């Protein structure tokens, strides 16, 4: 088996990219080695096209983005639709819906009239089908009826809902035939699906599903256009097999239509994408065999440093994560895995496939600021919108006035036919009125009218001093939107979607690679018989490991046989295809080359952390290396410009047509005739555009012959493929004409490069009569004897070959022909004419020949003692041997041998059957013709070819210094220039007789700013125009900034100085120039991780982290920042743990260092179930600090330890959320069934501070599995996934104290009225933890008796103003009656009071009645409860007097009487 191994260490053409520096020492990288294999003989079925399913979430998008979405062949997009949109709002209270959906007054509802047709028409440009999530908007826990109830109603009106679903879905489908999928609700485990629904309650959710699925059934009977509508659910925020199984079971039992099961997935361990899919589909198909699975959102697990859209490191991490996630969906066979997201709103920039390089304001609120539109065009509608914080409530964009100007600086009128107050405010010449963008959807929308002039300039007078970030886009048809100000770019994440789009439809077997959470993996596919593609990536997350990967590719498809293999490598990482790094958002190719096909090709690659690479392999003719069009004359169609750009080798220059009309022609004059092999066409933005075209060739430039027809004119439905084009054809020609006849793109034709390939300057197999014309041959040999040549045909192969008539004794036979040339190769097959001849023979090729007396001669020679390959030169009749090589086997008279003789400058090379046998130099002959020669015996010659030798560079220098790692066979380099150097000069030299061409022509590159990258092209050109080799330099001025802009640890370090007033800082306050910091961390901390260290020059500098190990309360963490220029700074963090509060006698303690947790049935970890199921949810895992306990499942659950008889104690633990909604906490006085307890936890919800920030600490009470928390006392505190928090809950009598990170947060008395529903004070119970519906980790769990540091406040025996006495009557319902008297000697309570009756069944609250009045002496008050079974003795009523009743918060701020229990 042959093996072609091309390793990066050898600096061959398989190298990804050489990093070079001027006056900078490159840093060596440590990389693990990994072997991987792709076997194209083993198919693994169709590839799941993960890139074709998408969440849009934000429209409209500009036309170049739409083109890209078309380019990746998007099949399904998802949109969010709210049921309440289709109801008019109640005029008295807009929280409520006004009336029934079929009320005549609702016919004017704008959403019902439009049915989002404009939006979906826009989406249909790039997607085949539409999926909508149909749900109610949610008013929040404080206002659950908002947007969900019709005015005057207090419960969910299901008949109205069922009727509304039919009307809404019918209307949407009627106007949007592309609607195909409807999800019922969205994440009903995170918020109630409808009024009265309880989160996570699947049986309750199924009533909503019933109504919507029945509506879908009905709509599908109405004969509407398009595919039948499909319905599914339960759309959980994370995979939960138990609840999804419950959904399937209930649906099947009730006969509901289920076309798909859907869920969302935001988890770090994406390997479960595969196993969860297999598990769910296996169960689903038992009941619904044709149903599919839809992961309608999948994305990155969290935010962190990725929240910065300018962070190239974070964006590369996102791209690698999403690649890995898609890979496991492809492995599992998910039917529709939907990427999240095309464009997201403010708090999740990193999830975007597209982002905006927005325009910026100056902060000047007095003067006009002018903006220039670089591409003015007539647009009727203009939309101006703020981006980032400019579209938030904290820093809203404000505009006083705006004006537009045409190209002649004439003002453009701004009409306001709809009397839009926002337009009026910015066009009334009154600075006192202004537009404020308070959210993402509040835009300025202008209608300039039909035939509006093109906007060339925009003037804005700002209303705020903040630096606004904004974009202005426009359209005339509401389908194609063009950017006026600001530019939408593609993120690394989307560039990986582009990579997936280049893969073939058939997966093939791969082996090797990691199956850990992080590591290197590969996906290989077959595109066709002549093309194969692979993606390989190194997902590291926050890790730094690189990987040296050897990829063995074997058993390539049949179309590769007999061909060379062209490989291309395209890369996404921190510095490639990464707009945040260098403002380039195209998919960058970092290497390409040609290799000969062997049984196994080994491609070697170094992948840096979070690098994703696409490798394309294509079967090509070897002549693809011979580009003979470089620098040649180009003629274009009238109006088309930039012809020279097509042959300059520069992929950033283009020839562009003036209009979008076709046909357009490009004609290349090659300067002389060549034996053509084909043509490559690099279209601008080829990934999203396809073209139809023809190629013709001509010898005289007048009479053309069709060489390739890619118009498919006979097929009216033909759609040209996207991507660059490669056409193969043969024939001798000087002129090549490309005629482009059409495109999938509606803009003007733009072509970056055309490359004409030649098989040679001469090619002859002697098959035709013309081929056998020897009139131009010089056949004169020694003594001026002419050697006639004839031709013979093989009776077996039918091949014709040339043969001299005779040997003329000792005089050789010569044939010298062709043009006088310098650098070229001559190739022929040679054989002894008589297959049985055993005597002496000499046969071979001539190069640089002028006559038989002056030439180079490469021959095979056989004598009775030798079998050799010999290179001779003959100069003016004198022969000199230059090289002699013994052949490994005797020359066989019956065998054909392929000989190649190449002359390049002074270098001369000879090959026998493709094997180099000598490589020497000589200066005697600089040019000449080629020829054939034989001696001693007749020899046969066939398939004679003369081909160009593509020149190479001998060196590339920057400011006179050869760039590091230069190798003439490597064509792409990155060169770092010191920040102190603003201009450099690039020079180069060519091998042999070649010359160089440079772009820019001056050779000088000037930088305008540190970090700026500029490209530079050097071409090594054949001196005779017979080929070119292009070398690309990316020159970048290196930054020497080695400082940090942000530094954050795995614990909150900012003391809580103002509980409830502000959110403590999450990052260390860095002081410029200061490298040493003393940091106080929570007590009992034993390991501090540096979770975020963002260099100021984050796109180029790197941070090396050394975490802090705490010993005896102290430790040191370090961050070493290395700048792009190689300078370093070291930040030292001296860590000091807070003193731990004194502890009493230990009741329970566990740190899990032994690798297990206490499972003792009497006092170990228990989840309250019978039998105990804690082992199904808990496990001990490893962390940097040691072993910790992890609750790893996605079910909300409490776990208890200890003794039920515990009363007063102190419980402490360190907790960490692994996922955003884990919300871990500690609990005390828990019942054995874990349904009642006190809890202190951290929460990710809105904390009530201005600006809508999130994160707080909450004190709560679980009452029969119903959680009651002090909503009015949320203490803002950072909630950071991955951070450790120290929680401490102290219970003493009815006194509760809660601490977070050694800070006292809560100090409360539970007198029975502390929590909503007024549960009685808990007296005793176990300690433990409680985690919501995601994973969290726990360590250093401790329960102790109380100590003196806990100030025990005894119950306050305050004399309350009122006393109660009463009774409960069970006739005709439950009638509670109390007599309220004023207590003697008690202080009067001013104002009104509230008598509160609470109905309970056992300990579970059922209902309440509250009556407010000014209570005097002897007032009797009654409350009635209409229950169907009043005789049920489990019913009882609590009665008491309180100061007020806040219906919104359901809180009882002050008790004015003791509680009376009426039974």
Automatic annotation (TrEMBL):
Coiled-coil residue windows: none
Gene Ontology terms for molecular function: hydrolase activity
Family matches, as Gene3D superfamilies: Exo-inulinase, domain 1, Galactose-binding domain-like, Glycosidases
Signal sequence bounds: 1-31
Domain F5/8 type C: from-to ranges: 612-759
Domain of life assignment: Bacteria
UniProt keyword terms in alphabetical order: Signal
Protein name: F5/8 type C domain-containing protein
Organism from which the protein derives: Paenibacillus oryzisoli
